[in-house]
Design goal:
The complex is a heterodimer of chains A (139) and B (179). Chain A is an alpha/beta fold and 139 residues long. A 6-stranded mixed β-sheet of chain A has the order 1-6-5-2-3-4, sandwiched between helices. In chain A, strand 5, helix 5 and strand 6 form a beta-alpha-beta unit. Chain B is an all-alpha fold and 179 residues long. Chain B is built from 9 helices and no strands. In chain B, helix 7 packs parallel to helix 9 and helix 8 packs antiparallel against helix 9. Chain B starts with a helix and ends with a helix. Classes of the chains: A alpha/beta (139), B mainly alpha (179). Chains A and B meet through helix 2 and helix 3 of A and helix 4, helix 5 and helix 7 of B.
Chain lengths: 139, 179
């Protein structure tokens, strides 16, 4: 089941569902050890008129998972960014980096529980609700 | 060649086939997992389950996790009892992944084994995953343990998700289901 933050916009639902499914599709192939400490965020941004997928992982993700996800993303023409600095999680990182891009709609994340408490607080402060996730583990 | 030798060769071929199909679970190619599951389902059911049960005791923890996932995806109703012992696996990653699989594929038979994981596992993220699994498949019998965790468990996973919050959410979900 796909879920979203309480203030998600109806107009973003379709793209949000796609992004949540994409995040889970990238999460599923990881090993169990990689899954345990990896959360993936996915968005799409319009740059110079072109929509591009952007995939991010948490700053603490294992390097093996980072390498696999970078390769899988870039092979399909997407942009890969590992979160870090003031925004160590992929969802707040993607928002902080791309919310002011030419085009930015929603974020999908791989974690079955959705954004962590700190990211929920961040999104509340930002007034942004278009964060979507698949509430299954890997189904 | 006697029948036992023929059986041995047949089983050896199946073992290699099964492990190569499990490796497909880790491919980023679209539909690779679904194709691997379909291929596993197309093999002789008794033989493939036998091979996968053997892999539940592999020294490779990832193979144990993959075998558990395969068994549950093939037929969770038939195989859940085979997977439940992994909740007591010496490797915390296996216990964590098993809780996750039971979240997705489990049923009420898992509750009595998830409750002690929630209350006693030394790793907070394993307890959190047990709470999440109970949120999906739990019933009233899990409520006392969940209430205890909601009151007392300050553990967090790597992103700061708290066990007590997951337990409180599970109580709400179970109560809503059983109302």
């Amino acid at each position: 089941m796909i879920r979203a933050l309480p203030n998600a916009r109806t107009a973003m639902q379709a793209v949000g569902y796609d992004l949540a499914a994409r995040a889970k599709d990238l999460y599923r192939p990881l090993t169990a050890m990689e899954k345990r400490t990896t959360t993936i965020g996915v968005t799409r941004v319009r740059i110079n008129g072109e929509w591009q997928e952007v995939v991010s992982v948490n700053a603490g993700a294992p390097s093996e998972a980072v390498g696999k996800l970078r390769q899988a993303t870039e092979q399909q023409g997407g942009i890969f960014r590992q979160a870090g600095g003031d925004y160590p999680h992929p969802d707040d990182f993607l928002h902080a980096e791309y919310a002011n891009a030419e085009g930015f709609e929603a974020i999908g994340i791989s974690h079955a529980g959705g954004p962590c408490p700190a990211c929920r607080s961040y999104f509340t402060e930002q007034g942004f609700g278009d964060v979507y996730w698949d509430s299954t583990f890997i189904r | 060649m006697g029948s036992s030798a023929t059986d041995f060769i047949h089983k050896s071929i199946d073992a290699r086939r099964v492990t190569s199909l499990l490796a497909e679970f880790h491919s980023f190619e679209p539909d690779s997992r679904e194709k691997a599951i379909a291929a596993l389902k197309a093999l002789d059911r008794e033989a493939v389950i036998g091979e996968l049960v053997g892999l539940l005791n592999s020294r490779d923890l990832e193979l144990r996790c993959d075998a558990a996932e395969a068994l549950l995806r093939i037929d969770s109703d038939q195989t859940i009892d085979l997977v439940l012992p992994l909740l007591a696996d010496p490797e915390s990653t296996v216990r964590w992944a098993t809780c996750g699989l039971l979240h997705d594929f489990g049923d009420q038979r898992a509750i009595p084994l998830l409750v002690p994981v929630l209350l006693n596992d030394p790793e907070a993220d394993v307890r959190l995953m047990a709470a999440s699994a109970l949120s999906e498949i739990g019933d009233h019998s899990a409520l006392p343990a969940l209430r205890q965790a909601a009151q007392l468990d300050d553990g967090e996973d790597h992103e700061g998700r708290r066990v007590r919050d997951a337990a409180a959410e599970a109580i709400g979900n179970i109560s809503a289901r059983e109302a």
